[in-house]
Amino acid sequence: MKTSCRFVVAVLAGLLFAAVAEADALDDALEQAKKTGKPVLAIAGTKTCGLCVALKEDLKDPAYAPMLAQFVPLNLDYGDQAQLQTCIKLQEKYKVEGTRIPLVIVIRADGAQLYGKDGAPDSLPDFFRSAIQLGGKILPPAQLEKLAKSVSEAAELKSQGKLPEAVTALAKCLGTGSYAGPAADANKLAEELTKEAGESLKKAEELLSRTDGALDGILMLLAGQRTYAKLPETAKPFATAMVKHRKNKDLRDPFLQAEALDKARAAASDAKRATTYYKVVLAKYPGTKAAELATAELAALDAE
Prior knowledge:
Distance between the termini: 80 Å
Strand order of the largest sheet: 2-1-3-4
Helix content: 55-70%
Number of domains: 2
Radius of gyration: 29 Å
Oligomer: single chain
Number of strands: 4
Structural class: alpha+beta
Order of helices and strands: HHEHHEHEEHHHHHHHHH
């Protein structure tokens, strides 16, 4: 029996305002997916729909139990007055091919829709294999907890302006293959850092376009390359810009001075080494802007 989903909604819509208020099952399922990294498997139908009943019976097969365990289940009944609101919300929020019931929708832990069709999938094993693969890796709770803590530490370091340390901490949180909340937070933080890196690169290029900005521009390129080294795709544009500007013979001296000064800055955590490198800048490039910067930074280092 092919029951029209729209027909069911139209018939039951009049009961909507009389429905008993309940916690939003869809939001609850999405929140659970975010916590666990498991995708949501939402199925909406009715108890009188033949296709819906058949799908429900098929899923009782023990062979599917291990696959179903990798999802956050959301089973909804258009005929249940208390669930109607959630059914309509699901239908309006996600795209579904077709107008029959049951609706079958898969939503990744980060909220991305992976599947949306009416009726039972042609092949349940193929459907599950595809959805599980696209849904990402499911990490153990202890690993997710550790990941959340590491991402939080990276965000805190970033807020303190300690970018190299933040990048180093964040790099360990990426590439997990998971779409759980902590993994999504790590990706978001990486995007923020990449955006900031792009702004820094733009500023460096602006400085290099001016005759009096060469040293500062190259220093920004060197700092960017060093700061984002643990995020290769973010650091790559800085390296590309370095290669491009090295071809400019007029920038030979600014490059030598900037590299000597950046070496001292990179050693800032070791006062003795940094002092040695700053003195090299003063000895090799007296009377230059690089020497002025080295003098000021050496004085600040001594004052610590």
